[in-house]
Amino acid sequence: MSAPIPISPATTIFSTTSNSIIPPHLLSPSHLRRHETQPHITTGKPPISSLSCQAVAGAGAAGAATPNKKKKSRYEMENLTTWLLKQEQAGLIDAELTIVLSSISLACKQIASLLQRSSIINITGTQGTINIQGEDQKKLDVISNELFCNCLRSSGRTGIIASEEEDVPVAVEETDSGNYIVVFDPIDGSANIDIALTTGSIFGIYAPDEQCLVDYDEDTLDEAKEKCIVSVCQPGSNLLAAGYCLYSSSVVFTVSIGNGVHGFTLDPAYGEFVLTHEDIKIPKSGRIYSFNEGNFDLFDPKLQNYLNHLRKPGGPAGKPYSGRYIGCLVGEIHRMLLYGGIYGNPDNEKAKNGNLRLLYECAPMSYLVEQAGGKAIDGVQRILDIEPKQVHQRTPIFIGSPDEIDKLMSYLA
């Protein structure tokens, strides 16, 4: 018999061939061999895997014929960083895009923190400036835009930035590699800030464009800007990724990289976005509609007929649709992805092209909704097929559950 292996008295060893505990003084090297190297005696029971701790569960578990399916731990969670790395390993995105998305999530965390403390640190109200669209800028509009730009610059993977708050696209000179084009609205629904209602951030990411990799000096600055504008103005169908961050009772970062829509909720205890809404699918229909009906008399008569139809009792419960209007595109789309329905920001007599910007509001949101199984149109054509002519171009939009968009089209035809 082989000599025993010396083990301290405090050591506890489990048998590889039975569910009993072997006293240290009886231990020999044969007890440390893997189970598959030992001859198997047919007993009608499956072999127990090597170095198993199953005996701790008690004698009653020893005779179980099949192992129980592993249950997900209440403490098990997947954060955004881990999820992005998995997508990279699967070949769905590259390392450069992973870094860009991580930098955007960091900007969203910073904005969320500022919004929670905005009244306390006196950053509510207007800045006293007007953006390129002629709109009064809130203090947080300017601050959030700067946060987004700084995070994207520091990533070293962004070549061009186009923002609602910038007159023209900005070329990033600090680029190391990647050169992605990022378009964004840093604060959507900024009118809600001062009264602590829902706001959000919207972003879209396009592939790198080599024609904007030029040397920036005073002699070529205007030419470089023109090239950047050309490369930024792409249809939404060219998007590589898009998403939004909702700032409300929870902070929710929702993103698509072309394989569905996934939502991550910020856990304030850890400061991490945790996967809470995996592979979101918008309901095929919904009983919620969202239009600014203060402009009802300015809408096209066909659209008025459609809205009048929604107000009439109908459906299985014999009730009209519920009208909801938040004044924040992010909030409208987030609710719609989960509950279904339709959102509209149409053209009217005072806004011939609608109120929302195509490049960094409508296109990213349309990309998300289509990835979730919904539809988005301008009343005539698919939003993602529109070729932008200007960076701050506006467009009408109707977006939501596929059945609801089809019903609207039957009225607009």
- Spans of at least 5 consecutive residues whose pLDDT stays below 50 are 7-67, 213-221
**What class do helices, strands and sheet pairing give?**
alpha+beta
Note the beta-strand portion. Answer: 15-25%
Shape: globular
Instruction: Give helix and strand order, one letter per element, not per position.
Output: EEHHEEHEEEEHEEEEEHEHEEHEEEH
What's the CATH class of the largest domain, please?
Answer: Alpha Beta
N- to C-terminal separation? 92 Å
Number of domains: 3
Number of helices: 8
Compute the number of strand runs: 19
| Known CATH architecture of the largest domain | 2-Layer Sandwich
Q: What portion of residues is helical?
A: 25-40%
CATH topology of the largest domain: Fructose-1,6-Bisphosphatase, Chain A, domain 1
